[in-house]
Design a protein that fits this description.
Length: 93
């Protein structure tokens, strides 16, 4: 019975760590994945490197093309998009 009493603090620490660290991180990851999946042509984005540009093409797989300036188009891995500054309205049809 004493052995169970010694493990109770460890179990409590695990649950506290789960609810304060692990669970919020998983929620943030899911939100980021949803944001990346919702990217469309015309969205203004910020990459993790700090580059700001407009999505010019969403390719199959895990990359997009981003216009950084006039005549400057780069391929970017979708998961490196840090933030979407402005969304375009969906086309009606």
């Amino acid at each position: 019975m004493e052995a169970i009493g010694q493990f109770i603090p460890l179990i409590l620490i695990f649950f506290i760590m789960y609810f304060l660290l692990i669970r919020p991180q998983q929620k943030k990851l899911k939100e980021h994945q949803a944001m990346v999946e919702a990217l469309r042509r015309g969205d203004q984005v910020v990459t993790q490197g700090g580059l700001i540009g407009k999505v010019s093409k969403v390719k199959d797989g895990d990359e997009i093309e981003v216009d950084l300036a006039e005549g400057v188009r780069v391929r970017v891995v979708k998961s490196t998009i840090a933030q979407v500054l402005s969304k375009t309205e969906p086309a009606e049809g």
